[in-house]
Amino acid sequence: MALHPYDLYDVRSLLSEEELAVQDTVARFTDERVLPIIGDCFDEGRFPSELIPEMAELGLLGSSLPEEYGCAGLNAVSYGLICQELERGDSGIRSFASVQSSLCMYPIFAYGTEDQRKRWLPDMAAGKVIGCFGLTEPQGGSDPANMKTNARKDGADWILNGAKMWITNGNVADIAIVWAQTDDGIQGFIVEKGFSGFSAQEIKHKMSLRASVTSALYLDDVRVPEENRLPNVKGLKGPLGCLTQARYGITWGPIGAAIACLDEALNYSKERILFGKPVASTQAVQLKLADMARRITSAQLLCVQLGRLKDAGKMQPTQVSLAKWNNCRMAIDIAREARDILGGAGITTEHCPIRHALNLESVITYEGTETVHQLVVGRELTGINAF
Questions:
Q1: Residues in domain Acyl-CoA dehydrogenase/oxidase N-terminal (predicted)?
Q2: Is residue 4 part of a domain?
Q3: Is 141 part of any domain?
Q4: Cβ neighbours, 10 Å, residue 265
Q5: pLDDT at 212 over 80
Q6: N or C: which end of the chain has fewer CB within 10 A?
Q7: Is residue 24 part of a domain?
Q8: 5 part of a folded domain
Q9: Residues 285-304: pLDDT tens digits?
Q10: Alpha-carbon gap, residue 83 to 248, rounded angstroms
Q11: Which one is catalytic: 361, 367, 370, 380?
């Protein structure tokens, strides 16, 4: 039997029936609802918010959180497959789900009170409340400890001042999980859209993640009640714990983008006739296609094992760094090679490689640049922090 070109090692045979069902369901959603519109959304710089209710109906928001909060209660591998299939459509769609699930719902679940969980999580799972995650600052970048946003106690409330940058979902969010310096270390706060002094400004002129909302957040003497503080964590381990959850999903997402690019390059090279024969019949193109398949296969196996480790409670942040570094690099290289195989046609958004290549410029940068993840692995090997 011929091997599947996008699953040479039959990775699907390693998945449970539930995991297969999740992947197939999200794949259909991507094929039927995302792919027909996403090229136009990218061209227009528009996030397709009309898809949010459908994503919620499928259980894609907060999918790994318990069913008692209106979530699907899926395992880590299933969440990874969700990210993979969504990013096969577009990184912006996966980014929306990642932020909602891992950066907003997860901290409320992990660091919040039971009242906060009951108040926010069911509506967030249903897509009725959208969240964003406020950690990165204009001067901070890869150094989140260099945080200027601050919160001071004022009676029963907190007063927040500062700014956050490169915030996915910022202008469509109903709440922001904002991290701020306090006299007792970094703490997290649920800042609601209507709070006086809180505003979001959408970032325009992007050449990447154009089908995603990216914003700057501004906090000018924003009064936040004590019941909106996340009480069960202090210090950088709070936001970094959220980032580990999100980075795990990001390790899977680029596999989907890479598969989409390989699919288009393979089909195009078979159809395009040059010098009297298909481009796919040349050694140069076959070498490129084979290398794409090799790298996708390696990434798939890496992620399945990472997911199994996560489900077993054994996953370490360094393992996530290794996978994000490997898989983002894999995907961006494949997108560029696929664009090259398509020739001049590859520069238009009628084909997906240039869109994925541009999006992956952000994915390889956010939530830890490639260099940061390389240094995390280097620190693990040597025991020396080179930051």
A1: 16-128
A2: no
A3: yes
A4: 28
A5: yes
A6: N
A7: yes
A8: no
A9: 999 999 999 999 999 999 99
A10: 10
A11: 367
Q: Which two tokens stand for residue 147?
A: 């945080």
Mark whether 367 is an active-site residue: yes
Same domain, 247 and 373: yes
pTM here is 0.96
* Same domain assignment for residues 252 and 377: yes
Distance CA 55, CA 52 (A): 5
Task: Decide: 56 and 121 in contact? Cβ < 8 Å.
Answer: no
Whether 261 and 375 share a structural domain: yes
**Whose CA is closest to 42, among 354, 361, 365?**
354
End-of-domain residue from the set 184, 211, 230: 230
Contact 280, 289 (CB under 8 A): yes
CATH at 301: 1.20.140.10
Number of structural domains (the chain) is: 3
Q: Which domain holds residue 72?
A: 11-125
